Structures are given as C-alpha cells and as structure tokens.
Amino acid sequence: TCNNHQAVNQANTSRGKLESTGIGGTACAWHGCFIPHSVVDFQKGERQVNMDYSFANAIQYNMSKITRIIHFYDINCAYMKKLRSHVKNSKFIDIPQDIQIVPGIGIWHVHGHRAECF
After folding, report:
1. Which of 15, 22, 82, 90 has CB atoms 3.0–4.6 Å from 42's, for a disulfide?
2. Contact yes or no for 53/40 (Cβ under 8 A)
C-alpha cells in the first residue's frame, strides 16, 4: 500500500557496518537552500537529537530581528512536544526563549496525520 513503502521500511536494516544511515538538515523555505551548519548525519536512523542539533544551529545563523519561525517537519506533532525540554537538558544546543516557533506539517505528510496532531 502507499503508506507501507517496503524500500524505506527495509532500508539500512543491517546498520552495523554503516557510519551514517542518512542525513537531515534545515532549509530556508523562501530561498530553497540548506542553512549553513544545519546538515547532520544520522548515525542510527532519524532521531530527534540529530534534528534538534540541526534546527538549533539553523536558528543561530543570520537571525537578527527575527522573532517568529515557521517550522515544517513531517512529524512536527510529535517533535514539538519535546523540543524545548531537549534543548533545556542539552549543553550542546540552545534556542532563545523569545523566539516563537509556529509548527506545521508539509502537504505530502499531512494526510497521514489525525486531527489530534493539530
């Protein structure tokens, strides 16, 4: 079925010999490019800690006078629940408290979510 992509489900099932299982990054929706210092390796699949690092680095770059960020992520409903606590408990990343983060889910993934996600 459409929501059961075997190629993706079985990708990297034997990760023992891989240094990286993929990459992630934060991109500017306006300009369509990755933000410097925001591309990360996934060492053990896509984990929130990797994307926390990517996002935190992205919002440190060229952000003077910006107070609101519109943040799209396929799993934003789950991701945003723990982002601030992840940042608070990390000595490696920081997100200014005064920045408003407006979460969204891209059109490709939004149809797989329930009303409770919003």
Report:
1. 22
2. yes
